[in-house]
Amino acid sequence: MIFDACEEFRADWIAAGKATTTVDTYCSLLVRFCAEVSDVSLISARMWVSSAPSVSMRRKRAQALRAFGKWSEEIGDNDVPWWPQIRTPVERERPQRTATPDDFTAALTRLSEARDRAILAVLWGGGLRRGEVANLTLRDVNLSDGYLIVRSSKTGKPRVVPIPPMCARLIRRHLRSWTADSLFGLGTSGIRLMLRRHGLLPAHAWRRGWAVEALRGGVSEASVRAAAGWSSGAMVVRYTRALSTSLAIDEFNRVWTVTSR
Length: 261
Fold this sequence. Notes:
mainly alpha, hpI Integrase, Chain A, three-stranded antiparallel β-sheet
């Protein structure tokens, strides 16, 4: 029953605007579950979840079963009524480096090529994922109005990403001697190697930093979500949890400054 319903589950998930990569992972795990257990029951589900070799994988398995179970209940099939009893293992979060304005300033001094400086500016000024940067073409750039178009993202939906004047300026300098259709001519591995070669932070550290600085500067959470391509506020919380106290202090100080005038 789970195997037969996977395609419908996937279609409804994507129609709801949720991440395609997430549901593809879930469906892959659900198919595996059906192949590895003799009966679809609470006991077998718990044993299957606990048999995964890592906390991360146990968490994914539990999430897949719970997501499918919740969806099945919502459409009236209720194929796995025991889904609320599947516990999701807690994965201890590892400290993740978040880029700062000082990191960006220092990084620019290490880069001499206009293309590399423009790539860094897009990572820091637009918060794009590494794959999204690699897929940019000349038609995706609007420097006069200050935005980029991400046509293919993790969620499967295109989006518009505003960029600051600094980012537009560095892209413009890069384009003075650039004729290829691809904006940067590098794939995801090439971008990763470029950052590593110059001793710079990885792409996601710049994306986290972009989110933090946007919120710190007064951009609403809704706008950050739209520009980042996040379907919910969960990722905003995840990206900014380590700096939540600092962000709260900045926001209250900004409010108090306005109200005290």
